[in-house]
Write a structure and sequence with these properties.
The protein is mostly helical and 53 residues long. 87% of the residues lie in helices and 0% in strands. It contains 2 helices and no strands. The chain starts with a helix and ends in a 5-residue tail after the last helix.
């Protein structure tokens, strides 16, 4: 029983950072999509870049 508890705790400890990283990535992507200043800067950069047709 004690071994099972250790294995379970180890598995939970190993999976926690992956879940946190996924949430952090989702927050970062949402912030990028909803940031007006970033959108304006990207549009200005795209306008200033010469077209490569």
């Amino acid at each position: 029983m004690r071994r099972t508890l250790r294995i379970t705790l180890l598995a939970l400890a190993c999976s926690a950072p992956a879940a946190w990283a996924t949430d952090l990535l989702q927050v970062w992507q949402a912030a990028q999509q909803n940031d007006r200043e970033l959108a304006v800067a990207r549009a200005a950069q795209a306008t200033a870049q010469p077209r490569r047709d």
